Amino acid sequence: MKILLIGCGKMGGAMLRQWINHDGNAFTVADPAATDLPEGITHVTKATSLPSAEFDVIVIAIKPQMIADLLPDYIPALKPGGCFVSIAAGCSIETLIGIVGKAAIIRVMPNLAAMVGLGVSGLYANPACTKQQVSDVTAFIAQTGRCVPLGSEDEIDRLTAVSGSGPGYVFEIMRSYVEAAKRLGFDEETSRALVFDTITGTVETARQSDASLEDLRNSVTSKNGTTQAGLDELRRDGKLDALLNDTVQAAYRRAAELK
Ligand SMILES: NC(=O)C1=CN([C@@H]2O[C@H](COP(=O)(O)OP(=O)(O)OC[C@H]3O[C@@H](n4cnc5c(N)ncnc54)[C@H](O)[C@@H]3O)[C@@H](O)[C@H]2O)C=CC1
Ligand SMILES: O=C(O)[C@@H]1CCC=N1
Protein backbone atom coordinates (compact mmCIF):
# COMPACT_ATOMS: atom_id res chain seq x y z
CA MET A 1 0.00 0.00 0.00
CA LYS A 2 1.01 3.61 -0.48
CA ILE A 3 0.65 5.34 2.88
CA LEU A 4 0.65 9.04 3.71
CA LEU A 5 1.40 9.85 7.36
CA ILE A 6 0.23 13.35 8.29
CA GLY A 7 2.17 14.26 11.44
CA CYS A 8 5.27 12.35 12.44
CA GLY A 9 5.65 13.39 16.05
CA LYS A 10 5.77 11.20 19.14
CA MET A 11 3.00 8.76 18.15
CA GLY A 12 3.22 8.81 14.35
CA GLY A 13 7.01 8.53 14.62
CA ALA A 14 6.75 5.60 17.07
CA MET A 15 4.50 3.66 14.71
CA LEU A 16 6.63 4.48 11.67
CA ARG A 17 9.66 2.97 13.44
CA GLN A 18 7.91 -0.41 13.39
CA TRP A 19 6.23 -0.05 10.00
CA ILE A 20 9.51 0.44 8.19
CA ASN A 21 10.72 -2.94 9.47
CA HIS A 22 8.05 -4.65 7.37
CA ASP A 23 7.99 -4.96 3.58
CA GLY A 24 5.10 -4.16 1.32
CA ASN A 25 4.24 -0.51 2.03
CA ALA A 26 5.70 2.77 0.77
CA PHE A 27 5.59 5.77 3.11
CA THR A 28 5.35 9.51 2.61
CA VAL A 29 5.49 11.76 5.67
CA ALA A 30 3.85 15.18 5.63
CA ASP A 31 5.15 17.22 8.56
CA PRO A 32 6.80 20.65 8.51
CA ALA A 33 8.94 19.81 11.54
CA ALA A 34 9.93 16.15 11.03
CA THR A 35 13.68 15.50 11.15
CA ASP A 36 15.83 12.35 11.12
CA LEU A 37 13.28 10.34 9.17
CA PRO A 38 14.32 6.77 8.35
CA GLU A 39 15.88 6.09 4.95
CA GLY A 40 13.50 5.42 2.09
CA ILE A 41 10.73 7.69 3.38
CA THR A 42 9.51 10.52 1.14
CA HIS A 43 9.16 13.75 3.14
CA VAL A 44 7.04 16.77 2.29
CA THR A 45 6.43 19.81 4.45
CA LYS A 46 3.12 20.85 2.93
CA ALA A 47 0.09 19.27 1.30
CA THR A 48 0.54 21.14 -1.98
CA SER A 49 3.74 19.16 -2.65
CA LEU A 50 1.78 15.90 -2.88
CA PRO A 51 0.52 14.23 -6.07
CA SER A 52 -3.24 13.82 -6.41
CA ALA A 53 -5.01 10.47 -5.99
CA GLU A 54 -1.77 8.81 -4.87
CA PHE A 55 -2.36 7.10 -1.51
CA ASP A 56 -4.32 4.02 -0.48
CA VAL A 57 -4.29 5.09 3.15
CA ILE A 58 -3.91 8.49 4.81
CA VAL A 59 -2.95 8.21 8.49
CA ILE A 60 -3.98 11.27 10.50
CA ALA A 61 -1.46 11.65 13.34
CA ILE A 62 -1.70 15.36 14.14
CA LYS A 63 -3.25 16.88 17.27
CA PRO A 64 -7.06 16.61 17.31
CA GLN A 65 -7.38 20.39 17.56
CA MET A 66 -5.48 20.85 14.24
CA ILE A 67 -7.50 18.40 12.14
CA ALA A 68 -10.26 20.74 10.96
CA ASP A 69 -7.71 23.29 9.72
CA LEU A 70 -5.14 20.96 8.15
CA LEU A 71 -6.96 17.90 6.82
CA PRO A 72 -8.92 19.56 3.94
CA ASP A 73 -5.65 20.25 2.06
CA TYR A 74 -4.76 16.53 2.12
CA ILE A 75 -8.07 15.16 0.79
CA PRO A 76 -7.04 15.19 -2.93
CA ALA A 77 -4.03 13.00 -2.14
CA LEU A 78 -6.28 9.99 -1.34
CA LYS A 79 -6.90 7.52 -4.18
CA PRO A 80 -10.55 6.91 -5.06
CA GLY A 81 -11.49 3.92 -2.91
CA GLY A 82 -8.78 4.74 -0.36
CA CYS A 83 -9.35 5.18 3.36
CA PHE A 84 -8.48 7.54 6.19
CA VAL A 85 -7.04 6.12 9.40
CA SER A 86 -7.21 8.53 12.34
CA ILE A 87 -5.22 7.94 15.51
CA ALA A 88 -6.43 11.21 17.04
CA ALA A 89 -7.95 10.99 20.52
CA GLY A 90 -11.62 11.85 20.70
CA CYS A 91 -12.15 13.22 17.18
CA SER A 92 -15.21 11.28 15.99
CA ILE A 93 -15.97 9.80 12.60
CA GLU A 94 -18.88 12.24 12.34
CA THR A 95 -16.45 15.14 12.82
CA LEU A 96 -14.07 13.65 10.25
CA ILE A 97 -16.89 13.16 7.74
CA GLY A 98 -17.82 16.80 8.31
CA ILE A 99 -14.30 17.66 7.10
CA VAL A 100 -13.60 15.11 4.33
CA GLY A 101 -17.14 14.21 3.25
CA LYS A 102 -18.48 10.64 3.04
CA ALA A 103 -15.46 8.34 3.15
CA ALA A 104 -14.07 5.09 4.46
CA ILE A 105 -12.68 6.00 7.88
CA ILE A 106 -10.98 3.81 10.47
CA ARG A 107 -10.31 5.09 13.96
CA VAL A 108 -7.32 3.52 15.65
CA MET A 109 -6.17 4.25 19.18
CA PRO A 110 -2.56 3.08 19.59
CA ASN A 111 -0.20 3.64 22.49
CA LEU A 112 3.40 4.71 22.76
CA ALA A 113 4.70 1.15 23.23
CA ALA A 114 4.16 0.80 19.47
CA MET A 115 7.68 2.24 19.37
CA VAL A 116 9.10 -1.14 20.45
CA GLY A 117 6.45 -3.30 18.76
CA LEU A 118 4.62 -3.91 22.05
CA GLY A 119 1.79 -1.45 21.50
CA VAL A 120 -1.87 -2.18 21.98
CA SER A 121 -4.37 -0.52 19.64
CA GLY A 122 -8.14 -0.46 19.38
CA LEU A 123 -9.66 -0.28 15.89
CA TYR A 124 -13.13 0.74 14.74
CA ALA A 125 -14.08 1.03 11.06
CA ASN A 126 -17.13 2.88 9.73
CA PRO A 127 -19.56 1.00 7.45
CA ALA A 128 -18.10 2.67 4.34
CA CYS A 129 -14.93 0.56 4.74
CA THR A 130 -14.63 -2.63 2.72
CA LYS A 131 -13.73 -5.93 4.40
CA GLN A 132 -10.43 -5.78 2.54
CA GLN A 133 -9.64 -2.30 3.91
CA VAL A 134 -10.42 -3.40 7.46
CA SER A 135 -8.27 -6.49 7.15
CA ASP A 136 -5.37 -4.61 5.47
CA VAL A 137 -5.40 -1.83 8.09
CA THR A 138 -5.76 -4.33 10.96
CA ALA A 139 -2.65 -6.17 9.71
CA PHE A 140 -0.82 -2.87 9.24
CA ILE A 141 -1.60 -1.71 12.80
CA ALA A 142 -0.70 -5.15 14.18
CA GLN A 143 2.85 -4.52 12.94
CA THR A 144 3.12 -2.23 16.00
CA GLY A 145 1.70 -4.73 18.54
CA ARG A 146 -1.69 -6.12 19.48
CA CYS A 147 -4.71 -4.80 17.54
CA VAL A 148 -8.13 -5.19 19.18
CA PRO A 149 -11.23 -4.85 16.93
CA LEU A 150 -13.96 -2.73 18.56
CA GLY A 151 -17.67 -2.42 17.86
CA SER A 152 -18.25 1.27 18.54
CA GLU A 153 -16.54 4.62 18.82
CA ASP A 154 -17.47 4.80 22.49
CA GLU A 155 -15.28 1.72 22.96
CA ILE A 156 -12.43 3.60 21.24
CA ASP A 157 -12.85 6.43 23.76
CA ARG A 158 -12.94 4.00 26.68
CA LEU A 159 -9.88 2.15 25.37
CA THR A 160 -8.12 5.53 24.98
CA ALA A 161 -8.60 6.10 28.72
CA VAL A 162 -7.11 2.70 29.60
CA SER A 163 -4.39 1.83 27.10
CA GLY A 164 -3.98 4.92 24.88
CA SER A 165 -3.10 7.13 27.83
CA GLY A 166 -1.93 4.12 29.86
CA PRO A 167 1.82 4.49 29.27
CA GLY A 168 1.55 7.99 30.74
CA TYR A 169 0.11 6.59 33.98
CA VAL A 170 2.64 3.76 34.10
CA PHE A 171 5.62 6.06 33.47
CA GLU A 172 4.41 8.29 36.30
CA ILE A 173 4.01 5.33 38.67
CA MET A 174 7.49 4.12 37.67
CA ARG A 175 8.97 7.58 38.25
CA SER A 176 7.48 7.72 41.73
CA TYR A 177 8.59 4.13 42.53
CA VAL A 178 12.16 4.94 41.41
CA GLU A 179 12.16 8.06 43.62
CA ALA A 180 11.03 5.93 46.59
CA ALA A 181 13.87 3.45 45.92
CA LYS A 182 16.35 6.35 45.82
CA ARG A 183 15.04 7.62 49.16
CA LEU A 184 15.84 4.18 50.60
CA GLY A 185 19.46 4.80 49.62
CA PHE A 186 19.92 3.24 46.16
CA ASP A 187 21.60 5.24 43.40
CA GLU A 188 19.62 6.22 40.27
CA GLU A 189 20.94 3.39 38.10
CA THR A 190 20.26 0.68 40.68
CA SER A 191 16.83 2.13 41.50
CA ARG A 192 15.82 2.09 37.83
CA ALA A 193 17.10 -1.48 37.38
CA LEU A 194 15.25 -2.72 40.49
CA VAL A 195 11.97 -1.05 39.52
CA PHE A 196 12.04 -1.82 35.78
CA ASP A 197 13.00 -5.48 36.31
CA THR A 198 10.41 -5.88 39.06
CA ILE A 199 7.68 -4.54 36.76
CA THR A 200 8.79 -6.55 33.71
CA GLY A 201 9.11 -9.75 35.75
CA THR A 202 5.77 -9.22 37.48
CA VAL A 203 3.93 -8.60 34.19
CA GLU A 204 5.47 -11.72 32.66
CA THR A 205 4.60 -13.81 35.74
CA ALA A 206 0.97 -12.66 35.51
CA ARG A 207 0.89 -13.39 31.78
CA GLN A 208 2.20 -16.92 32.25
CA SER A 209 -0.09 -17.73 35.19
CA ASP A 210 -3.73 -18.80 35.29
CA ALA A 211 -4.12 -17.37 38.80
CA SER A 212 -6.09 -14.18 39.47
CA LEU A 213 -4.21 -10.98 40.23
CA GLU A 214 -5.52 -11.18 43.81
CA ASP A 215 -4.10 -14.71 44.21
CA LEU A 216 -0.80 -13.66 42.68
CA ARG A 217 -0.63 -10.68 45.04
CA ASN A 218 -1.39 -12.98 47.96
CA SER A 219 1.37 -15.34 46.87
CA VAL A 220 3.88 -12.54 47.58
CA THR A 221 2.28 -11.53 50.86
CA SER A 222 3.34 -13.39 53.99
CA LYS A 223 1.14 -12.87 57.03
CA ASN A 224 2.59 -9.97 59.00
CA GLY A 225 5.50 -9.84 56.58
CA THR A 226 7.13 -7.04 54.62
CA THR A 227 4.73 -7.05 51.64
CA GLN A 228 1.72 -6.81 53.92
CA ALA A 229 3.31 -3.82 55.65
CA GLY A 230 3.87 -2.15 52.27
CA LEU A 231 0.44 -3.03 50.86
CA ASP A 232 -1.30 -1.70 53.99
CA GLU A 233 0.14 1.70 53.06
CA LEU A 234 -0.50 1.41 49.31
CA ARG A 235 -4.15 0.46 49.80
CA ARG A 236 -4.95 2.53 52.87
CA ASP A 237 -8.57 3.76 52.92
CA GLY A 238 -9.23 2.15 49.50
CA LYS A 239 -7.59 5.20 47.93
CA LEU A 240 -5.64 3.31 45.26
CA ASP A 241 -8.79 1.88 43.63
CA ALA A 242 -10.47 5.29 43.79
CA LEU A 243 -7.42 7.02 42.34
CA LEU A 244 -7.07 4.67 39.37
CA ASN A 245 -10.81 4.74 38.76
CA ASP A 246 -10.80 8.56 38.79
CA THR A 247 -7.77 8.51 36.47
CA VAL A 248 -9.42 6.49 33.68
CA GLN A 249 -12.77 8.27 34.12
CA ALA A 250 -11.11 11.68 33.68
CA ALA A 251 -9.33 10.53 30.52
CA TYR A 252 -12.60 9.07 29.15
CA ARG A 253 -14.44 12.34 29.85
CA ARG A 254 -11.69 14.26 28.03
CA ALA A 255 -11.98 11.94 24.99
CA ALA A 256 -15.70 12.82 24.83
CA GLU A 257 -14.85 16.55 25.03
CA LEU A 258 -12.44 16.17 22.09
CA LYS A 259 -15.16 14.69 19.85
N1 LIG B 1 1.45 10.54 22.18
C1 LIG B 1 0.70 9.46 22.41
O1 LIG B 1 1.05 8.61 23.28
C2 LIG B 1 -0.53 9.20 21.63
C3 LIG B 1 -1.05 10.13 20.75
N2 LIG B 1 -2.18 9.85 20.04
C4 LIG B 1 -2.71 10.82 19.07
O2 LIG B 1 -1.70 11.05 18.11
C5 LIG B 1 -1.84 12.36 17.58
C6 LIG B 1 -0.46 13.04 17.60
O3 LIG B 1 -0.04 13.14 18.94
P1 LIG B 1 1.52 13.22 19.30
O4 LIG B 1 2.30 12.40 18.33
O5 LIG B 1 1.60 12.94 20.74
O6 LIG B 1 1.78 14.77 19.03
P2 LIG B 1 3.11 15.46 18.48
O7 LIG B 1 2.98 16.92 18.78
O8 LIG B 1 4.32 14.75 19.00
O9 LIG B 1 3.02 15.23 16.90
C7 LIG B 1 2.24 16.01 16.05
C8 LIG B 1 3.04 16.24 14.79
O10 LIG B 1 2.21 17.01 13.91
C9 LIG B 1 3.08 17.83 13.19
N3 LIG B 1 2.40 18.91 12.50
C10 LIG B 1 2.15 20.18 12.94
N4 LIG B 1 1.60 20.90 11.95
C11 LIG B 1 1.50 20.08 10.88
C12 LIG B 1 1.02 20.25 9.55
N5 LIG B 1 0.57 21.44 9.13
N6 LIG B 1 1.05 19.20 8.70
C13 LIG B 1 1.53 18.00 9.11
N7 LIG B 1 2.03 17.79 10.35
C14 LIG B 1 2.00 18.82 11.22
C15 LIG B 1 4.06 18.33 14.23
O11 LIG B 1 5.25 18.86 13.63
C16 LIG B 1 4.32 17.06 15.03
O12 LIG B 1 5.44 16.34 14.54
C17 LIG B 1 -2.87 13.09 18.43
O13 LIG B 1 -4.06 13.21 17.71
C18 LIG B 1 -3.03 12.20 19.65
O14 LIG B 1 -4.36 12.23 20.14
C19 LIG B 1 -2.85 8.65 20.14
C20 LIG B 1 -2.39 7.72 21.00
C21 LIG B 1 -1.22 7.90 21.85
O1 LIG C 1 -3.02 12.50 25.73
C1 LIG C 1 -3.59 12.38 24.65
O2 LIG C 1 -4.58 13.07 24.36
C2 LIG C 1 -3.10 11.33 23.69
C3 LIG C 1 -4.15 10.31 23.39
C4 LIG C 1 -3.76 9.08 24.15
C5 LIG C 1 -2.41 9.36 24.59
N1 LIG C 1 -2.04 10.56 24.28
Along the chain, the helix and strand elements come as EHEEEHEHEEHEHHHHHH
Helix content: 40-55%
CATH superfamily of the largest domain: NAD(P)-binding Rossmann-like Domain
Total beta-strand segments: 8
Which structural class is indicated by helix and strand composition?
alpha/beta
Distance between the termini: 29 Å
Strand order of the largest sheet: 3-2-1-4-5-6-7-8
Protein described:
This protein is an alpha/beta fold and 259 residues long. It has 2 domains: 2-159, Rossmann fold (3-Layer(aba) Sandwich); 166-257, ProC C-terminal domain-like (ProC C-terminal domain-like fold), CATH 1.10.3730. It is 46% helix and 18% strand. The chain contains 10 helices and 8 strands. It has helices at 10-19, 67-70, 93-100, 131-142, 153-164, 166-183, 188-207, 213-220, 226-234, 239-257; strands at 2-6, 26-30, 42-44, 55-60, 78-86, 104-109, 119-125, 145-149. Strands 3-2-1-4-5-6-7-8 form an 8-stranded mixed β-sheet, sandwiched between helices. Helix 6 (166-183) packs across helix 7 (188-207). The two termini are 29 Å apart. The mean pLDDT is 97. (2S)-3,4-dihydro-2H-pyrrole-2-carboxylic acid is lined by residues 89, 160, 164-165. (2S)-3,4-dihydro-2H-pyrrole-2-carboxylic acid binds next to helix 5.
